[in-house]
Structures are given as structure tokens and as C-alpha cells.
């Protein structure tokens, strides 16, 4: 499912226009991105948690030259599925 299919499904299930559903989906996604970027968690009970995690600096290998390189530390977004979400997937 892509973003436009998600918008259509949200509009259908909530019985609102596609334009309003698009605004709602965009607002949700923007809020999650902004909050996680600040280092805060977004926890949706039954669905899951969006959070920021830190990757430590590590050594990697450049496949073209076969030399070792240092990969700097970075922050990455992460999602951990909630219990109800996991259970519905495993049915």
C-alpha cells in the first residue's frame, strides 16, 4: 500500500473526503517526524512506538577499494510494534 492508497482507505473508513483524509494523514506523519527528530517518542498504544536511536561509530569496508573506513555515529528513526499489532499480524 502506498500513500495515496492509504489516504483513500482512511477516507473510506472514516467517511470523510479524500482531501480531508490527505490533510489528516499528512498532519500525522509530519507530527511523528518532528517529534522523533527532537529525540522524543511517539507511543500509540496497541500500534507501536516511534523513537530515535543512536548508532555508534563503527568500522566498515569500502567494497570498491576493499579498504577499511570509519562509519561515523548517527541517529536513526526506529519503530517497535505494539503487542496488539504483533498479535494481529501473527493470526
What key attributes describe this structure?
about 90 residues; two-stranded antiparallel ribbon; 2 domains; elongated; alpha+beta; 3 helices; 3-stranded antiparallel sheet; 5 strands; HU Protein, Chain A
Architecture overview:
This protein folds into two domains: 1-38; 39-91, IHF-like DNA-binding proteins (HU Protein, Chain A, Irregular). The chain contains three helices and five strands. The strands form two sheets. It has a three-stranded antiparallel sheet. It has 91 residues and is an alpha+beta fold. Helix 1 crosses helix 2 (18-37). The radius of gyration is 19 Å and the shape is elongated. A hairpin with a 3-residue loop joins strand 1 (42-44) and strand 2 (48-55). The model has no long low-confidence stretch (mean pLDDT 95). It has helices at residues 3-14, 18-37, 83-89, and strands at 42-44, 48-55, 58-61, 68-71, 74-81.
In short:
With 91 residues, this protein is α+β, with helices and mostly antiparallel strands. Helices cover 43% and strands 30% of the residues.
- Give the biggest sheet: 3 strands, antiparallel
Shape: elongated
**Total strand segments:** 5
**Mind telling me the CATH class of the largest domain?**
Few Secondary Structures
What Rg, in angstroms, do the CA atoms define? 19 Å
Average pLDDT level: 95
CATH superfamily of the largest domain: IHF-like DNA-binding proteins
Number of domains: 2
Number of helices: 3
What structural class do the secondary elements suggest? Answer: alpha+beta
* CATH topology call of the largest domain: HU Protein, Chain A
Distance between the termini: 20 Å
What is the CATH architecture annotation of the largest domain? Irregular
- Taken in chain order, the helices and strands follow as HHEEEEEH
